[in-house]
């Protein structure tokens, strides 16, 4: 089996490519469906609106972390993964913000983060952070890291970030009724599950713990 420059089997790149392709195709379909649909739209207190608002913020941090890694990581595998995450999640932010505009809703709500989830705010972490989100100190530590520590810290932070995002998607799927939102959420989960596998394999190749 061929390997990349870090010695990581290329199997993870195939898993990631399939997941990203599926997610992008779903995203296009959701965007078109949004423009063509005349069905009733979610209200401001709906799970769909809460998800669009909170996941946009959650995604924004993933883009931030990924751009740090893309510019400073030592491994081409990590840089490629970081680029894919940044591009995909920025595109999804655009889709979710367009939903809110089409629904005539504010991009931010007046309810606490995660209040739309089935378990409410029970999964909110210290500092009012959504599940898996890094602290400011962790982001600063990533920025100041050098060498392979950039790769390791990014993979560890993004692994936790994705697991938190998947938890949010599961909460949305338990409550949502809008087929467009459900379709995109399922695409997110598929892509991030593939990326979780890739991150775990990268950490293993660097002999680094997953947390």
TrEMBL record:
Top-level taxon: Bacteria
InterPro entries xref list: DUF305_CopM-like (IPR005183), Ferritin-like (IPR012347)
Transmembrane segments: 12-36
Domain DUF305: 48-202
Pfam families attached to this UniProt entry: DUF305 (PF03713)
Annotated keywords: Membrane, Transmembrane, Transmembrane helix
PANTHER family: SLL0788 PROTEIN
Protein name (database record): DUF305 domain-containing protein
Lineage: Bacteria, Bacillati, Actinomycetota, Actinomycetes, Micromonosporales
């Amino acid at each position: 089996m061929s390997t990349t420059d870090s010695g990581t089997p290329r199997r993870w790149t195939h898993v990631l490519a399939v997941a990203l392709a599926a997610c992008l195709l779903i995203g296009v379909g959701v965007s078109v469906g949004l423009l063509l649909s005349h069905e009733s739209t979610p209200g401001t207190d709906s799970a769909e609106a809460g998800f669009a608002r909170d996941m946009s913020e959650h995604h924004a941090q993933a883009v931030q972390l990924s751009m740090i890694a893309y510019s400073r990581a030592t491994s081409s595998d990590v840089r490629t993964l970081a680029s894919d995450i940044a591009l995909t999640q920025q595109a999804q932010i655009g889709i979710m913000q367009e939903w809110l505009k089409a629904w005539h809703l504010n991009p931010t709500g007046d309810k606490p983060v995660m209040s739309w989830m089935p378990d409410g705010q029970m999964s909110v972490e210290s500092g009012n952070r959504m599940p898996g989100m890094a602290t400011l100190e962790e982001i600063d530590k990533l920025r100041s890291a050098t060498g392979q520590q950039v790769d390791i810290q990014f993979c560890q932070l993004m692994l936790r970030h994705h697991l938190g995002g998947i938890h949010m998607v599961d909460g949305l799927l338990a409550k949502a009724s809008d087929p467009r939102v459900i379709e995109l959420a399922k695409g997110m989960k598929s892509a991030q599950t593939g990326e979780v596998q890739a991150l775990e394999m990268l950490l293993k190749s660097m002999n680094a713990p997953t947390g």
